[in-house]
Amino acid sequence: MLKMDNMSCLERKIDRRSFLKISGILGMGIASAGIFPWTAGAVDINRKLRKVSETRLAMGTTVSMTLVYQSGEGAEEAMALAFKEIDRLSGLMNRFDEKSPVARLNREGRLNNADPAIIEVITAALYYYRLTGGAFDITITPVIDLFKEKFSRGEDDYPTEKEIKDALSHVGSDMIEIKGSNIRFKKPGMSITLDGIAKGYIVDRASMILLRHDIDNHLINGGGDILAIGLRSDGNPWKVGIQDPMKRIDYIDTIKLTNAAVATSGNYENYFDREKMFHHIVNPRTGLSPVVNISASVIAPTDMEADALATSMLVMSPDEGVRFIDSLPQCESLVVSRGNRKIRSAGWKSFTI
Prior knowledge:
Layout: H1 7-13, H2 16-27, E1 30-31, E2 40-44, E3 49-58, E4 61-70, H3 75-93, H4 101-108, E5 110-111, H5 116-131, H6 141-153, H7 161-168, E6 176-179, E7 182-185, H8 198-212, E8 217-222, E9 225-229, E10 238-243, E11 251-257, E12 260-266, E13 293-300, H9 303-315, H10 318-326, E14 332-337, E15 341-344
Parallel strand pairs: 1-10
Antiparallel strand pairs: 2-3, 3-4, 4-8, 5-7, 6-7, 8-9, 9-12, 10-11, 12-13, 13-14, 14-15
Helix pairs in contact: 3-8, 8-9, 9-10
């Protein structure tokens, strides 16, 4: 999700122990949803192949790219263009930046001549709103902002039933109107967050730039939203570790990916309150944060799809969510629920190593 934290905050989270653990993960050739050190480098695999890797701050997290290509010039340039596009799109969709188009839409209730990328993401969000029966809803922002405002006063200042109900009266993606390049909210007081879909979209767009430059084998890790295209330098599928949300072990599963994406959504102890009842993911049907599911990982053809579906699954019951994913083509899922119960979709095991 797009949390626009500053660099100093991220730097404080990376101590020596974390750096060594991350370096070990990279040495095993496994992509993970953890924090990566700031690195850049190129390695000759053989006379024909060269691997280029780089990690930068972007989208309020760390974004890592690994490219495998035939010897020659251009990979570094393609990677630079991909990172440039990530920064551009992040700026468009950051609701916390008052100069961004999304912030302007939230402030004024309409946005004319919107960038095509914003139209594309919001149109996709409306599709997933309908597909999930309302479980995915970018208009949930009034409830999230209510939580933030209440708990900023003190840990015991819980939102009342009436306050949640009032906030929910401004929620509903069916009240978003798109006509051409113009977007309008049908009801005053509405606002959106693209946290649950934009990061996946941006990773997909960065991948498209690499493909246009004939980088047919690459992996992009956007803070845990991972897109794997082609193969690794050894000719095998990319390996991705699914982290244990309970932190009892490093990985609960390791999967192999080729031309597919995986995204994980979870609370990860990111609560507003001491009793752990309210966090940054909210069920649009109830106005409350889900407490049964701890994390949901989804494999899908695109990172945007994986991102939106993982967010949706977190607010569904575990069994309902897995049944939902089983009904979708080319999608698989792994849910970790309360009591460390793990529920896998029918075809998840075909991706495990």
